[in-house]
Every structure is written in structure tokens, then in C-alpha cells.
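---------- Forwarded message ----------

FYI, see the O-acetyl-ADP-ribose deacetylase record below. Original note from H. follows.
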Amino acid sequence: MTAITLIQGDITQQSVDAIVNAANSSLLGGGGVDGAIHRRGGPAILAECRDLRASRYGRGLPTGQAVATTAGNLDARWVIHTVGPRFTREENRSELLASCYRESLRIADELGARTVAFPAVSAGIYGWPMEDAARIAVETVRESVRETESAIEEVRFVLFDEQAYEAFARHVR
């Protein structure tokens, strides 16, 4: 059975098999979690992201999908990049957000990862309300590991601040 744990802190400091990056579609770094992972992980991550852009993802990684690279200088084996949807009240994009978690877990399983650290995908500059982002994340992870008989032993949500931690805690209980 997969354990779901919560930590308030910096995702780039986690010692896990795979760290999930809330990337932008360019895969070339950005702000927030994406920028922090690229800065701390070093140039090896960016080099592999550029290779992905030059080959399979010339137009960028589509929203809701995921792809893995080296973790560079991070204390992990891989970084799994996923592009979350931007929140809008005009269109329900919940399925795209859920897909980020499902696809990241699928990639992690394919790689043989046993421990995976997730940020709150789309809940930063993409504007997803934290409570709803937490609900979707926790429900999707629980459902996904159960349905796929995942070999992942721990899914760790690494939340930047107390508000995010509390929102996720309400859904993990």
C-alpha cells in the first residue's frame, strides 16, 4: 500500500527517487517550483529538457502530460515534469489537473521509483484555489495507485507554506 505523507518545506531538499516539477510547457525553466528545481538541479536538467524540445516536444509539453529527465544535483534520481492547467472560472479544467498526477505516477512507476515528491501543481502562479487543488491531488493519487497496483511506496506532498499544508491535511485525513 502506498503511504501519502505531507511535509511543509522545499521540494528541492527532498531525498526521494523522483521529484515532480510543476513545469511550464516550454520545459526550459520558469518561476516558482520550476525555477527552483532548475536552479538547484543544475544544467543537466535543462540540457535534457532542451533535447526533449528538439525531439518529441517541439511545441512544448502539453498540459496534463508528464516526462522525466535526470535530477542533476538534486537528491533524487529523476525529475518528472508535468504541466498543470491554469485555473479559470469559465472552463472546468479539473480533469487536466488530475491527469498531471496520474501521468506523473505512471512515469514514476515505469522508471521504478518507490518514492515520489509532488508540489501543489497549478496552485501557485497558475491560480488554482488551494483547497480544490489539494482535493484533486489527494483523490487522484489515491485512486491512481489503487487502480494501477503501483509499486510506489510513498507519495510525499511537499507544501511550501502552512496554508497549503493545512489544505492538503484536510484531504489526507
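H. also flagged this: The first strand starts at residue 3 and ends at 8.
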